[in-house]
Amino acid sequence: MPDARRAGAQAPRPVTKREYETISAFRGELRRFLRFSEEAARRSGLSPQQHQLMLTVQGMPGREFATIKELAQHLQLRHHTVVGLVDRMEAAGLVARRTSEEDHRVVEVVLTGQGGSVLRELTAVHREELVRLADVSGRLADIIRGGHDGARIP
């Protein structure tokens, strides 16, 4: 870790108790949201990875497909792991593969009608949880901007 004092920089400002409390609360709420999401996926018959893959496909900006490479990067999984995940999801009727019209070497993954329906239901359930989480993230944003005790998180 670089020593900021060597470059003539000021020592970092001490972290306030309020900052520790807010960051701790945010991380706790974030973990609760992730657990909620994992359990909601399982109740819908999906693994959390399957749910995340479907979100990634549907959430690609400006299009409704994702390549295997993009999925691997987004999910932080190895290429062959994503291929296996897509295989299982394709067998379950949740996604389909198609060859890219632009580059026939590229495989695009799209949601099927069934996959889209499952994802819509899961996303609707997640909306309410996100509203709850927004309150905690708003308090953290206030502290980052210096709104509570005048201290700013650099």
Strand content: 5-15%
**Biggest sheet character:** 3 strands, antiparallel
Shape field: extended
The averaged pLDDT comes out at 87
Strand order of the largest sheet: 1-3-2
CATH superfamily: Winged helix-like DNA-binding domain superfamily/Winged helix DNA-binding domain
CATH-defined topology: Arc Repressor Mutant, subunit A
**From N to C, what is the helix and strand string?**
HHEHHEEH
Judged by helices, strands and strand pairing, the structural class is: mainly alpha
Could you tell me the number of beta strands? 3
Total DSSP helices = 5
Q: Radius of gyration from the CA trace? A: 21 Å
Domain module tally: 1
CATH class placement: Mainly Alpha
CATH architecture: Orthogonal Bundle
Distance between the termini: 17 Å
Fraction of helical residues: 55-70%
**Which stretches are low in confidence, meaning pLDDT under 50 for 5 or more residues running?**
149-154
What does this 3D model show about the protein?
- It is built from five helices and three strands.
- The chain is mostly helical.
- It has a single domain (16-144), classed as Winged helix-like DNA-binding domain superfamily/Winged helix DNA-binding domain (Arc Repressor Mutant, subunit A, Orthogonal Bundle), CATH 1.10.10.
- The chain has a three-stranded antiparallel sheet with strand order 1-3-2.
- A hairpin with a 7-residue loop joins strand 2 (95-99) and strand 3 (107-111).
- The longest helix has 32 residues, at 113-144.
